[in-house]
Amino acid sequence: MAVEIPARAGLIISGTPMSSPLQDVGPLARHMVGHFMETVAPCGTLPGDALHGDVTAITRMCLELAVGMLDGKDLPEKTKRLEEAAGQWAREGIPIDTIHRAIHEGFKIGSDLVMGNAMSRHLRQDNPDGGAELVIAAADMDNILGGAAMVVELLERMTCAVSLAYVRELRSVVSEHHTAVHTLSSALLGGHSTSTMARECGIEIAESYYVLAVSIPEHPEEHSPTVEGAVVARRKLRRLQAELATGYTAKVLSLLSVDGGTILVPGCALADDQLDELIERLSRAARVPIAATMISATPQGIPDAADQAHELLDIVHRLRLTRGLFRFDELALEYQLTRPGPGRDHLGSVLDPLDLHSELLETLRTHISNNLNRQRTARILHVHTNTVDYRLKRIGQLTGFDPTQAAGLWYLRSALVARTYRAG
Length: 424
What we know:
Elements: E1 12-13, E2 16-17, H1 25-39, H2 48-70, H3 76-92, H4 96-120, E3 123-124, E4 133-134, H5 138-189, H6 195-201, E5 209-215, H7 229-247, E6 253-257, E7 260-266, H8 275-286, E8 291-297, H9 302-318, E9 324-327, H10 328-337, H11 342-349, H12 358-369, H13 374-381, H14 385-399, H15 406-423
Parallel strand pairs: 8-9
Antiparallel strand pairs: 1-2, 3-4, 5-7, 5-8, 6-7
């Protein structure tokens, strides 16, 4: 988007163009770049060819744009060049705050030169008191004020041009990366991992992966009558994807929707004990309690591992374990109980005596999902802890398995899993 500068008369101070201090753009551009290296810290880390090539050329172009504007000329091609440069900086990963700081530092130098020169032309040395006196004609004062306003306007135009071009290019880069991640993730999950595809996507295939099945619950505002639920859901997903992109750049692959999906974490990128932190960070980003299950696999084993991880996630849902990362060894027993057979059928019948006591079955489910925390269970069920104790005692009497004892709890937890699969 080229910024058009409306035609206007050039600004003159005492018969001299106001732009005169900026017209020797070559030496001034080199001086400014040297100043950037000293005052804008990130600039000092740029390669020498970038500083003395692109940065100097763009600084010179900005000076030419400033001179043209002060002289009343329209130079849209200069603004176009600035937009192209901003897009290139975005692709190269130069922070936008570094760019803006450099622009503002350049404007400080240019403004001091222009305004200092304008003021010096109106100093009278023949003051009777022996000092210098500032005397400005009305026409020159109008031009000085107009020049100051024009400098602010030019700064605004350049800042907007850089920001728009930078963001546009950044979105394009993010879109390209997202497409590459989506393509490679789909290939790995479909059992079509090839080195050729990885090279085309620009992402290296790891020797092993942690395959995470992820459940993303609804945000409370998705059901608010005052907002559009689909918008809230999409924003939740974008926050989660942004956390993956910024916190684990180019390492983590994913296929996600607003309610969950699959994440592939290279084994070399994170240690096993760091995966819990990953899920916590994603929960904070999405602002909902995320639950996930994990299976390790080679690239060739990812499809089977993903199926198994999602089966484990289904168990997590059935047990109402609403938050955190669960590994296979934590759910191995429950997983085995889901396999069809007489064992599952028998365990599923253990809870049949509770069919006529829905409050007891709900208390058992809630108590187990809360990791046997009586206070939390009572708070969720809106009852007193004594009521929870009474209901647990009744469950033991009706089923023959005491939920306050390890052996009884083992059977009851297993029965909950088996019962849900028997029912559907």
